[in-house]
Structure formats: structure tokens, C-alpha cells
Amino acid sequence: MRVLFASLASVGHTYPLIPLAIAARDAGHEVHFAAGPEVHAPLAAHGLRPFRPGDAFYEVYAEDLEPELARLRPDLVVHEWGLPGAAVAAQRAGIPGLWHGFGRMLPEGIGLERPTGNAEVVGRPHLDIWPPSLQDKDFLATERRIELRPVAFSTPARPPVRVSRRTSRPFVYLTLGTAFGTPELLRAALAGLAALGAEVVVAAGRVPVEQVGEVPDHVSVHQWVPQAELLPLVDLVVHHGGSGTTLGALAVGVPQLLLPQGADQFANAETLAVAGVAVRLLPGEADAGAIAEQADRLLPRHGNPEQREAARLIAEEIAGMPSPAAVARLLPEYAT
User: pLDDT digit string (tens) for 73-127?
Assistant: First the structure.
């Protein structure tokens, strides 16, 4: 079977699809991946045949994909939530398609069209990687969902970053992601965490490392880190609330301090705070002192049994969701 995956050309939208694409390839299917060139390197490294449809660099519209569908003639198109145009193109071509989520059902008003509101492709099933207990209740009740375990995917850092726990200090991971982080917030978070005496690993992301400034010996700053390797080692994740980092931390059962800045981050932060697996600080609240205070409360030395138990239960829920390999075996059923 030939399967075409399609996503926006960003880490937050492409990486959630890669585990299923790899599993489909391993199951013997011919896999192609339509996306802008920004994300071609990790796709090509895993044999997923990336290509740029039409003039697309970030977004992919129906007219970009329609000639490629005629050329490739896939049996199934898997299109992420950020690409309603891919869903429309597949529908017009008479090719079965599946929506693929990148997190919790996205809230209205963040600049993306909700897949549940697109009349032209209503009724298509959703591959849902968000744990059901934290998912939007209307989405759970009204849409055709295929549960799919979220699997963290990350590429090796360049230059390489050795991921290890060097001391007996509490171990904290800090990142503000790839879209909204600012030097000012990163420096405030770093100052607060450094004051706790914890070992801190920082992924500066879109903030140039040279803008972070000097840091103490127990803090290491990198442009990128292999997040999938790091998350199982840490005691706390302090981050922006992006879906990839949120799901990665949930899957390993680690408490989170969320500093949302935009897009779906505010909804993710509210959902996790209500569920008791995280604490959030909104933009007007997130100074160095508040970050230090809340992070200190979440570290193991203070016990915080409520958050850690809540996080453990969500991790168990995620572990019980069908794996990418299991879902890949079912894909032919959706190609008819």
C-alpha cells in the first residue's frame, strides 16, 4: 500500500507524525511525506521520501497537493490537523484520508482552522495522540477517533549533546520551544531555576545561545537537545506548553511548570493545571521569583505527592494506548 503523509513544515507539526510514518514503512508500506523543505532532513534520514508539494514552504494548500496526488496515486493520505487543504485535496481526488492530531483538539482563535469545522471533509476519522482523560470532551463525544500512543521524536543535536545526570542535585529541563520563546523569559526562568541549586539543562530553541548570558556551572545551555532521551531522566520540566514537550513529559510521568506564550499553549496549560499534573504561570506572573517558587514546590525534595501521582496515572494511560506499530497494521482498513 502507498501512504502519503502531509504536515506543516515545523517541528511541532511534523514530528508527531513521524513515529506512525516509520511504523507504516516498517510494516511494508511505501511511504511518502509532503512538507516544506525545513523538515526534510529528519524525514529523509528515516526513509520517508519527503518532497515539497507545489510552492509550499510552510503551509500546504489543496492546489499544491492535487498534482502530487495524481502523480503518486496513494491509497491513503494521513494529514495533520494544521493542513485542512490536504484533507480537501484527498477528498476531491476520491482518496481516503485520516486526520492526525499533534496534541489536544486545538482551541478556536489560534490561527488554525479546526478540522472538526471543515464541512468539505466532515466525518473523516482522527488519529488522536492525546490521552483521553485530558482530551476535549466534545471532541471525544462527537468525532471518530483512533487512539494512537504519542511517541517522542527528536533529532540528534548539532554539535552532539551528551545527555546524562551528572550529580545528585535535582535535575530540571528548561525549554521555551521553537515558536514563541523570548530571551527575556528564558533569562528569567534560568535565573529562577539556577537559584534553586538544581542541575539545569536548557534548550534555547529560537533564542540564540549568546543571548542567554553567563550561567553557573550547574547549568548547561544548548541550542537543541535530544529531548526524547532527556525527558525520562529529569525531575521537572519547565516549558512553554507546546504539545510535543507536554506529551513527552506526560508520557514519562514527570511534573511540569508551564509558561504558556501563544497558540495552543494556554489551553494545554489550563488542562494540565486542572488535572493536577502541572502548575502554570501566565505571562504577567512569570518572573524569576515566581518561577523559582513554583519549581521548588514541584521538585522531589518537597514530595509533591499529588502532582507526581497524577502524572504517574497519565503516564500509565498513555502507555496503554495503541502503539504506532499496532495502528500501522490497521491502516489498510482505512484505505477502502
Answer: 999 999 999 999 999 999 999 999 999 999 999 888 888 888 887 777 888 999 9
Q: What is the pLDDT of residues 2-61, one digit of tens each?
A: 999 999 999 999 999 999 999 999 999 999 999 999 999 999 999 999 999 998 899 999
Is this prediction's pTM over 0.70? yes
Q: Spell 153-170 as b/e; 16+ CB within 10 A means b.
A: bbbebeeebebeeeeebb
DSSP state of 82: T
Residue 276 region, left (φ>0) first, then alpha (ψ -120 to 50), else beta? left
- Smallest CA-to-CA distance from 188 within 289, 258, 256, 262 is with 289
Angle between helices 243-252 and 265-275 (to 10 degrees): 20
Cα radius of gyration rounded to whole Å, the chain: 20
Buried b (16+ CB within 10 A) or exposed e, 254-283: bbbbbbbbebbbbbbbbbbbebebbbbbee
CA separation for the pair 204, 200 (Å, rounded) = 12
Residues 6 or more apart in contact with residue 88 via CB below 8 angstroms:
62, 118, 120, 121
Could you give all domains of the chain from N- to C-terminal order, each with its CATH number?
A: 2-150+321-335 (3.40.50.2000), 171-319 (3.40.50.2000)
Task: Classify residue 259 by its DSSP letter.
Answer: -
* Range list of β-strands (E), 83-198: 97-100, 126-128, 145-147, 171-175
